[in-house]
Amino acid sequence: MKKIVIIAAIVVLAASVLLTGSAKDINQAPGSPGEKAIDFTLKNLAGKDINLMKDFTKRKVIILVFSATWCPYCVQEIPALKAVYDKYNYKGVEIIHVDPQESRERVQWLVDKYKIPYPVLLDENGQVIKQYKVPGLPTIIFLDQKRVIKWRFSGGEQDYDSRLKELGIK
Hints:
CATH topology: Glutaredoxin
Shape: globular
Low-confidence stretches: 4-29
Largest sheet: 8 strands, mixed
Oligomer: single chain
Number of helices: 6
Structural class: alpha+beta
Number of strands: 8
CATH architecture: 3-Layer(aba) Sandwich
Strand content: 15-25%
């Protein structure tokens, strides 16, 4: 039994390393800066359809965060994202958490535990994560007011203040 637990832990750790990234710039990935963001419609935790291009038209900047409950780097990034949301949301910045292929109940647990204030959307079939060619979690994508991709990053701990300042948010 002990061997099974150790093997399971190694498999989970290996999967985490493969699917998550360190804080590295991934601006050479498809959907690179300068390209128009790919529109999508996903359900929020209440089951309502939310559309990227239609439901956030008044937002100056959108930060897309591809994240999952099982990803330690994703969970580690939540306090920084909450701070950005608290500081900049009233200035026109929206953070949108996109969670790929996890149950509504599991994602709701994360939202409740960490009191996540920004919209959380369920990518139930993994289509959006594929469209954006997300290489690992977390992946953070900044969109300007015209919904053009400005930056893509894999990993957490970004200098959100500097990036937002470059996009005219002070």
